User: What shape does this take?
Amino acid sequence: MKKIIKRIFQAIVLTICTAYAFLIVYAYMPNETISLNELQSNDDAFFRHDDHRVRYQSFSELSSEKPNLILIHGFGNSLGTWESLAPKLSKTYNVYAIDMLGFGLSEKPVYYQYTNANQASIIQSFAEIMNFDSFIVGGHSLGGAVAMHAAMNNQKAQGLILFNPGIINTGVPEFSKYLNLIFPMSRVSAKQFTNREFRKGFLKMSYHNSIIVTDQVMDRVMLGSQTADYISGMSSMLSKYYEANEAELMGEVQLPTLIVFGIEDRNKSMDEALQLKDGFMNSRLEIIQDAGHYVHEESPDSVSKIIIESVKFLTDNNE
Assistant: This one.
């Protein structure tokens, strides 16, 4: 009996070691990459932040009569997420969108602290480079938490727009925060995001109407994962656990805050929307029906109408 138990134990250990070795081999298998010159378009422009390359696009004919609006994407996405909404806002706002460091065609440095506050400092650099007197900042999901920091810590910020933000509920499973701390799981996770079918299935779960996940959308979503620095940068990002504290800071935001909330979000509820409304002292909550987590992509007409009609609210800090 003891021999049988010993053999079973040895078999289990061998299986675990083999699986672990397979994960390491998989994690370090080379990926096909494409040069930045081939990936970027004529609409792309770049600036430097902390000596790192950051991509941005402008979606409007610039006018000093219009307020500046800077938009920030969510996790695993890029500035392309705004391609349906941004043009609809262009007559009312000077609209810009940015790829955060680690995403899209922005640089993905290994030795960088990817905290929300650090990502928010990119907005300040951009505003200084563009010589903005003032700006409104908007963010989706993770980008909402980043936008919140930008609004809190920049005197030129006028207003804040949150699209199903990752402030109260980040949407990150608790176990994955710690799993990626184990070698080589952060690299395995990064590799998964280079798999088009995996990303497609993951994305379809985030949309209320999954028909929107077209080949064109997938081409845009996969763009950042094709750069030469993607695996190393994303692995570095995922290998660190940053404690989120944005929910505790909501009351410190004094700027007018517009909350645009897709009520069909599978990971967020009406209760969370109301908590956001109560948490930001000077806020308006707009509920969008028949839209999920990517509310700005699923309902660009409804969302743009709300943002255009809110221009006075967002630019009048005394309201």
